[in-house]
Amino acid sequence: MIIDADTHISPIRSPITIPVEALIDEMNQSGVDKAIYWLQPPYMREIDDSLAYIHQSVKRYPDRLLGFGWVDPHLGFEKGRETIRCCVEDYGLYGIKFNGAQNSYYIDDEEMVLPLIEEAAKTGTLLAFHIGADEYDYTHPYRVAKIARRFPETTILLAHMGGAGLPDLSKSCIEMAVECPNLHLIASNIGWKKAIAAIETLGAERVSFGSDTPFSVMHADVAAFQAFLGDRFSPEEARLVMGGNIEPLLNL
User: Which residues in 188-217 are b (16+ Cβ under 10 Å) and which e?
Assistant: First the structure.
């Protein structure tokens, strides 16, 4: 089974967003069985309707899509707490994503963000963070390591593992993952050499494939991963990276 651990959809049409139907088409073309997906919302926009779209999409494609919620701390603690409750209890989503680059905040902010991370951690679901080079100070790996140490029982997915642009923070991300065993790296939109370094350092069970669709080309990414995994790693290691790790993390 191939699981893409980083994709995005949006009900809002624009040159850079895709609807759920386009994501399913990409998955079919790429031989991807299931995909973790989260919002691609406009900057600083109310997201209730978009989260409802996430929920409606997984109801349409329950055998293909693995939905995550989203919280923007700028909307306030009470709103964020209710959003988390809705995503977990009403929508039955697999976890909550925080994106400090998209929504302009330091992910370890003690007053605005950490109380909401604590609320999300209490639900027992997964947490996910954008850890990329864009707005890297907001989402630096050392900040997510602080969160991982504070919530050691919570599994945290790191989309992009410090890449997706410059400066490349993948080495720092790998180093933080060595220290924090509850961090799981998603090697999406990052050079394959960095993905290899993460697998060799952490083991195949700590790294998963992701395409970052629609910001990348899913079928090309699947082919690239299958090529270098086949060259450098065992069939079992390749199976883990291409989806085998995600199955137990999400209790599939």
Answer: bbbeeebbbbbbeebebebbbbbbbbbebb
